[in-house]
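Possible regression after last week's pipeline update?

I re-ran a chain I had predicted before the update to compare outputs. Posting the input and the new output here so someone can diff against the archived version. Not blocking, just want to make sure nothing changed silently.
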Amino acid sequence: MSFSDLIYPFEWIVAWILYGWHTLFTTLGIPSASGVAWTLSIVGLVVVMRAAMIPLFVRQIHASRRMQLIQPEMQKIQAKYKDKKDPDSRQAMTQETMDLYKRTGTNPFSSCLPILLQSPFFFGLFRVLNGLKKISDGTTDPIGPISRKLAGEAEASTFFGAQLSDRFIGANSLTVQIVTVVLIIAMSASTFTTQRQLMMKNMPASALDNPFAKQQKMLLYLMPIFFAISGVNFPIGVLLYWLTTNVWSMCQQFYVIRNMPAPGSQAEKAMQERRRKKGKPVEEFTVKGLDKPTDEAEAPKPSGQRVQPSRNKKKKGAAAKPATKATAKPATAPSATTDPKPQTDN
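New output (post-update):
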């Protein structure tokens, strides 16, 4: 099975979503062949996709917060096997790490799910926009409801004077290149703002020193370069989709940092302060599975310390009783009540 066969179902879904929004906007009076209708349809595609992934995004938030809380335990495991390079130690380290994930209900791959699920639709939109010209001239078959007539309208529609299917590479006009560069700069700025906001406000100080945080900081400055290299190869319609989803992510991230901050972060302190001023209870995010091993590890200690002295006391008491009787006899020997008994036995 080729890549085209794998991606075709996503092309079909993208085509239907674009068609649905386009029909809505034309019903509202926007001309069918105008760039406004098709641009808003691409924005509508982002809204549908990101709204459908909100449950996954919520799971991503909880997974991220759990990952922050279990970092001390992760560091203990790493320190435990730091100088052990043999296969058995490596396997034991992996096993303990997986047990920690299972016990705390943490999935390190949850943060990647929204991106992974969105990628096929991104490529689906790319192929739809890239194939509009071939559909309009009859070279290829229509995709879903995108007929030859609609494909021709979408192909001819413009965004600030540049067609939605145009790209920087191979562009015939300066307008296309300017629009592409502006979109790439806007994409880079929105991504930079989102990531910087995440690192500065929604990460505890202890998490800023680990390798994962350093990688994020590196990506913070590498993403604009990535956008510049890859963006020149994408149609303007795809860049619009990319920019819209970046803006969605930035707004969504702002809401999360304000209302569901990471434990120990600056944003959490600010949220708790706001709740105190409003007289609301301060709630802290905890991981139940993380508390369990601590309680179990400490439970035997107090019980052992309590039981052991009681057993020692019993033993000492048992040994002390004969000594008490033995010392009592000499003390009472001169009395009249204790001496006659041995005499009668003789």
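Follow-up from reviewer: compared with the archived run. The mean pLDDT is 75. Marking as no regression found.
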